[in-house]
Design brief:
Strand content: 15-25%
Shape: globular
Structural class: alpha/beta
Length: about 260
Amino acid sequence: MNTQTAPTPVLAREPMDITQTGPVLHVRLNPAAQDDTLTVAVLDELITVLDGLHERPDVRVMVLSSLGDDFCLGADRHEYQDALATDPTGAAMRRIADKAHRLCQALENSHAVTIARLHGKVVGAGLALAAYCDLRAGADTCRFRMPEVGLGLAPAWGGAMGRLIGEAGAARIRELMFTCDVFDAATAHRLGLLHKVAPLDQLDNAVAAWTKPLARRSPEALVLTKRMLNGYAKAARTADLSLLDSHLLTAQLVPHHSRD
């Protein structure tokens, strides 16, 4: 197990727990108040944390994990249904979807190197969220799935399709999106969706093997390297359509809701 010095509490509030150890910020989703889904409260808190990092140059690394049984089971469909029931025009739904896009862009553009520590199930929007982290380590018992097509929706959460294709390749992602098949940690590693796989009881050590050297690196070198990697990855695409995804998702859900 990880033998690091106990982190100093910085912020502990639902729906997440946040601590800091030196230049490493640990952000843990806390499903005590809800199930393991990305509710609006979670989106708002994560956006607040990432926006706050602009004034926190001392934070060089951010580790994103969960205190629940699973890393994340996806977006909260009950909130989607409630938003459409309250506002059938879809405006409220678009605001939720836009938050998801803002969160993913904040992860991608943060100066901190972001690390996803994954365990249990990583589903839909949870996988999209992890894909926007710079590095991803997962327990060998992880199970992944992109269920959107099976639910009658396009995989549009957060504008993540472009990121997933960039990380794993269009051919590989295409099959998993169309079939909605469950795949394991070994497959995720082979596809490039995981950089490391470790037994659950060694996962913290696997993450620490990244955070310890990163904490010693030049902050300027880390930021420039991250900016260059993201820039070259985006340059490989002829267009970035992610800004349209929140509207695409809403446009799909509004007719479904009307028929129901």
